[in-house]
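Q: My labmate handed me this sequence with no annotations at all. I'd like to see what the chain might look like in three dimensions before we decide whether it's worth expressing. Could you predict it?
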Amino acid sequence: MSMPSFPNIDPPIQREDAVNQILSSIAMEELGLSHILNAEGEKLQYILGTIPGLSGPAATVSDVLSANKSVRGLLETAVQNQLFLKAKMQGALTASPMQGPTGPTGPTGAAGPAGGPTGATGATGATGATGATGATGATGPAGADGLTGATGATGPAGVDGAAGATGATGPAGADGAIGATGATGATGATGATGATGATGAAGVNGATGATGPAGAVGTTGATGATGPTGPTGPNVTATSAYAANTSGTVITVILAGTLVPLPNAQLLSPDITVNGANTVFTVNTAGRYRLSYDINTTVALASGTRLLINGAANTASTVAPLVSLSHFANEILLDLNAGDTVSLQMFGIASAATLLPGSAGASLTILRLS
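A: Here is what I predict for the chain of 370 residues:
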């Protein structure tokens, strides 16, 4: 497919021309998308061997499922792009038309001579022609509907293997012979009981001695001196950082992702630093951290947001909505080593995201817990 081309209009460009250019760009994007969808349909036809006169190696069930997953992912991306193009077209079509300038006023009739009879009233000059109304921009052609990809054939179910034969049960071992019980020995004769001795006389109980008087209570000793106070334990939450963007920055979002600058309201502890672009924060003390962020845009977008740890996307921090949002927020707990970096990123469908001005358009908080 060739690249789209637009008419060369010398400045100053008129409002109607600008609207027409926007509608033309939407039509070109729809045309390009239709070619992509058609290519995905032909990819499935090639794998299934349904393209007349063209065949390749026989596809396995795994090949068909993998191709179907790839096509489905592209269709989901195409749906998100349609939402973006719809908003773009509605904005262009609702732009108010410009009115032409007011025509010149007609000449006034000549006055009669002084002192003479009043002359006939001069004819009223013709009303100036109304300026021409600017031409309404042509509506761009509707994009061609993409071909629906063929549904992959379901592979045959695998045949169950035959059950193996049950092995024969081995013979039971012979019981060992029970040994003979030994003879019981003879009981010995009982000895004669000795005579009971005489009971001795009971002793006389002695008299109980008198109880002595209670001793005097001793005086209370002096209180010992208070020991020195121990040293104060470390304050781990002193390692923290906060930064925001309050200036309404426009973020050019791309599929691979764009870092969000946070140059305003920065409050950083000495062991957390930020680079010159205010996008990468370096933690120089190891520990467990609470990381949270917020992003607020002027219009709803189908983009996603996430945190990058040492340049790699953190899945738990990712917000990837199925519908457009204007507020993104998340919070995670993470163990960080000394020297690890943290960044805030927007990613997904190519678009321009404008952060809310004069407020927390975007913010990031880093707080050490232990």
